[in-house]
Amino acid sequence: QVQLVESGGGLVQPGGSLRVSCAASGIIFSLLTMGWYRQAPGKQRELVAAITRGGSTNYPDSVKGRFTISRDNAKNTVYLQMSSLKPEDTAVYYCNVRGSDIWGQGTQVTVSS
What we know:
Layout: E1 3-7, E2 10-12, E3 18-25, E4 34-39, E5 46-51, E6 57-58, E7 67-72, E8 77-82, E9 91-97, E10 107-111
Parallel strand pairs: 2-10
Antiparallel strand pairs: 1-3, 3-8, 4-5, 4-9, 5-6, 7-8, 9-10
């Protein structure tokens, strides 16, 4: 059974940092490109970071320089380190096996003072 489980969300002040994690099971994690997406209320889900099996990464301009995606293949886990957080980063963050319909349940990140 394929499963993605996100964790690490929470409330953080503007300018703060937070790391969210996604633990995968039931897949050959090391061979897959993984992505982090977010969805704010009333908005479409958007990609915020992706990492290939070789470690290449890409980010949209909205988060470039502030977010860092990484992976630990030994732990079947992908991380998203977020810094210089802004209120507009508030959303539910999901991980995904890129190109698939495999999603986690999401973790809420709220940036507010």
